[in-house]
Q: What sequence folds into this?
């Protein structure tokens, strides 16, 4: 059977392994550490540095396809591998659009995809001009390396904008700015695409963010019109095709007055697609493996009317109750909640796991997912349910 | 998080690993070989011999619970481990009933569970007496070590019975006989039970056997009356409690004129429970881990009206088409079929994998599962569908 080499050792690689196992495969991993989320659960692990060409070469040797759980592998190394005949999916020509927010927006504007008004910011003067253009509604972004809201700023005044831009440019951070939208909510449209060009879309989900971090995903996005859902799916498919994306593509969207604007692209399984593990015929992890191997894609039909994913994020201080005990409390109260833990050590704000809950009613399903996800870090039932009742 | 040590390296251990990963755990494995089905996909593998106490000791050191993917670990070794404080689940006191068909039937008769009329066969005279008692309707069985129909004989005449018994007793095979039933079909009632005594039952499935091997499982068993389904579930729960089973228990049943008789017990995940991976909120592999760790059990609700599991068995000669290509044909024709492969080398009659298909219509779902499972070994569509149509 085929071997997929995965560069990166986080939870995405870990969850690819569960899908690989059932397909009769097993992931070859290039990991930073043996105790990393993914390396803990793979048999074929090379410990190395993904910025080191020699390590990359060793990791991909003999693999049928090479893919990633993050966007940080140097493109020049990937190109060297491709030139040597290695099957890298997705390829740097696509990846650049997930690595650089300005490159992405420029390309999307070019293909006619809706993006908020934006500009490169290479000087304070650029920032001032943009500030005028958008009536002061500015969202400033680092072009590269942002994640979970790091690298995004909302200066309220032109003075604050000048200050932030000066400081960041001095530090050598390449910048762009876009119009700050008063959006109604955030959506995520996910598709998978194969090198042969087959594309399959999942239902569009609503993604709930707190402090720049996705905390919840609701599938399908409640109350989304079939028209807008169809548009968002088609948009994601067009972007995948136009940018030459292979594997899973997540298109993060803003919904504003019945229209959508693209905020961000991720070319790998994505937090807003975790619900597919328990709510969909084909999970994003299985689909990603199929896509990078150029296998036919699986059905993206939902298994139940509603699936809610809620992230388990490290709180400021870890609860005293051991995590294995917290897990048992959640299992006892909610026998149908699906717990997914990443084997990561505790850190405030860190994504440690998630839960998926399928159901028929959005409000009830969300409530259960939130309660369960929070208990897994806090050891407290947010609704006042008494701990001894779940003993 | 907790560590479960699994003794055995087959597909059951392999599939426990996929569930363990998502629970934030990872299996500790005692495997016979590094290229075995389970060892291929686990990070923490000890190569050793499960009949060797020293190897067992090393494998279970520090594990929160110890469990099995087969019934062949010597009970005296397990008792030694238990005496040393190791948490073995299920325990030998329960396991004996899955290891010896006569012990099992004697116990079941004692607790009032329905079993076909049976007797120990220690001499040809015993066999003759039993032959008379059941009007020649004899099923002769090796008490220990049978699997997939090996160790089961149906002598048609008293001469044949005498011959077979003489031959087997000479070889030192301990024997029993039971009444050969003209059953309507075979069912499987599966439950999980924790050391604390929580029990949860899955829907009762119909199991289709060919040559003593389970080839298909249909959930729920078509046309089974709610009364009989409830009886079968209750029976399985009673057996689990009375025998002190922990983890998953499969009770294989014969349905005869609206009644059930127990044929066989397995105290581990079972072939007739594979459908739960894709058709049920909680798979038997996750449930087994939860049960042996004494965690609360998960919901056993079905995700769809029908789920069919079909086994992929090695044919007499392997198809020329590489297996990775066969997989792609199946994926192309049936985007919603779930393929599970065990990473095993080809051998005629060997269980190499299975497929699960969920749906609404029993006949259509069975047809798809059978077509897919057969194509995975034969590279032929049994319904004449043309290969080039799935290119
Ligand atoms: N143009 C905008 N207008 C209004 N809010 C915005 C805009 N761009 C970003 N935001 C807010 O900031 C959050 C983080 O932005 P963005 O997704 O670009 O950052 P990121 O660090 O790349 O995050 P991720 O890791 O989710 O990709 C968004 O979820 C949104 O809430
Ligand atoms: N008493 C009986 N009457 C009629 N047929 C029987 C009887 N016992 C067994 N069989 C047939 O033989 C098959 C194999 O029997 P049994 O399940 O006991 O064997 P096994 O080798 O232990 O199989 P498994 O691996 O499925 O547990 C059964 O599935 C059934 O078809």
A:
């Amino acid at each position: 059977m085929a071997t997929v080499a995965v560069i990166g050792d986080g939870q995405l690689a870990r969850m690819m392994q569960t899908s690989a196992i059932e397909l009769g495969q097993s992931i070859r991993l290039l990991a930073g550490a043996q105790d990393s989320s993914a390396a803990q659960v793979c048999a074929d692990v090379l410990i190395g540095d993904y910025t080191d060409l020699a390590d990359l070469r060793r990791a991909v040797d003999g693999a049928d396809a090479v893919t990633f759980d993050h966007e940080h592998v140097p493109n020049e190394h990937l190109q060297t591998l491709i030139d040597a005949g290695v099957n890298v999916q997705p390829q740097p020509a696509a990846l650049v659009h997930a690595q650089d927010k300005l490159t992405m927006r420029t390309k999307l504007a070019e293909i006619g995809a809706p993006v908020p008004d934006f500009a490169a910011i290479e000087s304070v003067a650029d920032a001032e001009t943009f500030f005028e253009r958008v009536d002061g509604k500015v969202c400033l972004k680092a072009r590269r390396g942002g994640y979970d809201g790091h690298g995004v700023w909302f200066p309220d005044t032109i003075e604050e904008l000048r200050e932030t831009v000066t400081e960041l440019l001095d530090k050598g951070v390449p910048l762009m700015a876009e119009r700050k939208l008063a959006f109604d909510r955030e959506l995520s449209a996910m598709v998978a695409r194969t090198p042969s060009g087959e594309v399959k879309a999942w239902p569009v989900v609503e993604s709930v963010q707190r402090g720049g971090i996705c905390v919840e995903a609701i599938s399908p996005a409640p109350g989304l019109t079939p028209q807008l859902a169809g548009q968002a799916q088609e948009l994601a498919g067009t972007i995948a095709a136009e940018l030459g994306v292979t594997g899973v593509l997540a298109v993060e969207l803003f919904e504003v007055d019945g229209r959508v604007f693209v905020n961000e692209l991720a070319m790998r399984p994505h937090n807003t697609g975790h619900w597919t593990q328990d709510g969909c015929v084909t999970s994003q992890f299985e689909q990603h493996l199929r896509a990078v191997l150029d296998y036919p894609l699986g059905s993206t039909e939902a298994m139940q009317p509603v699936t809610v994913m809620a992230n388990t994020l490290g709180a400021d201080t870890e609860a005293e109750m051991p995590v294995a005990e917290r897990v048992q409390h959640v299992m006892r109260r909610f026998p149908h909640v699906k717990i997914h833990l990443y084997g990561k050590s505790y850190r405030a704000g860190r994504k440690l796991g998630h839960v998926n809950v399928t159901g028929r009613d959005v409000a009830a399903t969300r409530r259960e997912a939130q309660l369960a996800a929070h208990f897994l870090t806090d050891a407290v039932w947010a609704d006042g349910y008494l701990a001894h009742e779940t003993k």
Summary: The mean pLDDT of chain A is 96. Chain A has twelve helices and 17 strands.
